[in-house]
From TrEMBL:
Gene3D superfamilies: Glutaredoxin. Residues 1-18 form the signal peptide. It comes from Yersinia rohdei. It comes from the Bacteria. This is DSBA-like thioredoxin domain protein. Residues 45-237 form the Thioredoxin domain. Keywords: Disulfide bond, Oxidoreductase, Redox-active center, Signal.
Length: 241
């Protein structure tokens, strides 16, 4: 087996310009050797796939880290983006969400619980209006409220997330009335924030909500609180090194 392995390494490391063409008999024998090797060692393919997957994950992680470094301001420090939790966090999550997304409606309360359970964690909320006109309208009103009356944002945000099914003009108006927030008109800045969010999401390859950036991991979809907590603990440990 060792001899065969060395033969393979010599064969595939040989420069193309230095390799003489194989005869038909040699090609047949090469195929036989490969087949015999795979039969005798069926785990070779699995090991190769695992190694490839690990390399792909490492490359993807490196690209994500580079993107985060290049977009620190837009991701974490944009004044137009609502945030929950401490002003000086050890770890900041970025939540891409949609007020019409049913999965976001179940996942968002977990983020609110997280910042209560972990005072050293903050969450930045990045609305992504993927689901129609009312997604855009509700997002712009929430962002405008954050910009003009930040202390009123959370109650309105929670009310929108609590609405079952898609929002419409009547349910958005009802949310404003029930929460007693100051009536606002969607600001120009709110539209700029949405454009930035959409650009960030496109560059991150986000195709649906919720999507949550947690340290150097991008988590797609809604996960359970124990799963969320475990990732946060890992990222806090890395941040503390």
């Amino acid at each position: 087996m060792k001899i065969l392995t060395v033969w393979f390494l010599m064969l595939f490391s040989m420069p193309l310009w230095a390799a003489a063409p194989f005869t038909p008999q040699q090609e047949v024998r090469i195929k036989e050797l490969i087949r015999e090797t795979l039969i005798a060692n069926p785990d070779i393919l699995e090991q190769s796939v695992n190694a490839w997957q690990q390399q792909a994950n490492e490359a993807q992680g490196q690209q994500l880290s580079q993107f985060i470094t290049a977009n620190q301001q837009a991701l974490y420090q944009d004044a137009g983006s609502p945030r929950l939790g401490t002003a000086k966090p050890q770890l900041t999550l970025v939540s891409f969400t949609d007020y019409n997304c049913p999965f976001c409606k179940t996942f968002d309360p977990l983020l609110e619980k997280l910042v209560k359970d972990y005072p050293q964690v903050a969450v930045v909320i990045k609305p992504l209006p993927f689901k129609g006109e009312s997604s855009v309208t509700s997002a712009r009103l929430a962002l405008t409220l954050w910009q003009q009356h930040p202390e009123q944002f959370l109650a309105f945000h929670q009310r929108l997330m609590a609405k079952k099914g898609n929002l419409d003009a009547n349910s958005i108006a009802a949310a404003q009335e029930k929460t007693g927030v100051t009536p606002v008109e969607p600001s120009a800045q709110s539209l700029d924030v949405l454009r930035t969010n959409l650009k960030l999401a496109d560059q991150l390859g986000i195709q649906g909500t919720p999507a949550t950036l947690i340290g150097d991991q991008l988590v797609s979809g809604a996960i359970t609180y124990p799963q969320l907590e475990e990732i946060v603990k890992q990222q806090l440990a890395q941040a503390g090194k």
